[in-house]
Specification:
By secondary structure, the chain is mostly helical. It folds into two domains: 42 residues; 136 residues, Tetracycline Repressor, domain 2. It is built from twelve helices and no strands. Helix 5 crosses helix 6 and helix 5 packs across helix 8. It is globular, with a radius of gyration of 19 Å. It holds the Pfam family TetR_C_36. InterPro entries: Homeodomain-like_sf, TetR_C_36. This is AcrR family transcriptional regulator.
């Protein structure tokens, strides 16, 4: 029994505790495993599955929370209005994603899992990222700072996400080195 458990100060195991532990593990460049989370929290793996789903779902949620926070912070901090602001936001997101040690470790050491978790529709990461970017585009559109012509906001959001992804995952897709400067140029071109 740990000293914390013996003294009665052990934190209650719940969904949020599992996610905090998974995020800490991910950020430490360690492999996130359902069995390890369950053991560390003193619950069985079925409980983790009930709270969070399978390993892919846990990873998608951890990465989503990191990504959502990064996008919101970038949008609040970057300059520009309209398409320029969105391009700056997404460029900052790409830079932070590439600089995040846990993400680089995940992309390098679990490439197939990473691509599945981050780009497949049945996982929750990409649809939520597209929805978040669509919300930001909508804000700029409603403020009169962005026009999209015949392209709807959802489609433009999807394109922004896919352009960003193509430069984050380029090493896994084409073998080229990820380059945030190329992503920035492409995003500004798309949103000009």
């Amino acid at each position: 029994m740990t000293r914390a458990a013996a003294s009665g100060t052990r934190k209650r195991a719940d969904r949020e505790a599992a996610l905090r532990l998974a995020r800490k593990t991910f950020n430490a460049q360690q492999r996130v495993e359902v069995n390890d989370l369950a053991a560390a929290l003193g619950v069985n793996r079925v409980t983790i599955y009930r709270w969070l789903g399978d390993r892919d779902a846990v990873l998608a949620e951890v990465i989503w929370r990191l990504g959502e926070q990064t996008v919101h912070q970038a949008y609040a901090a970057v300059g520009g209005i309209g398409g320029r602001r969105i391009a700056n936001t997404m460029s900052t997101f790409v830079r932070h994603t590439l600089a995040h040690a846990g993400m680089r470790h995940f992309l390098t050491n679990e490439t197939e899992t990473a691509l599945r978790v981050l780009t497949r529709g049945e996982q929750t990461f990409q649809p939520r990222l597209v929805a978040l970017v669509e919300d930001l585009l909508t804000r700029e559109h409603e403020a009169g700072a962005l026009t999209t012509g015949d392209l709807g906001l959802h489609d433009l959001a999807y394109l922004c996400v896919r352009v960003g992804e193509s430069f984050v995952y380029t090493d896994a897709i084409t073998g080229e080195t990820p380059d945030p400067d190329r992503a920035e140029r492409a995003l500004h071109y798309l949103l000009r």
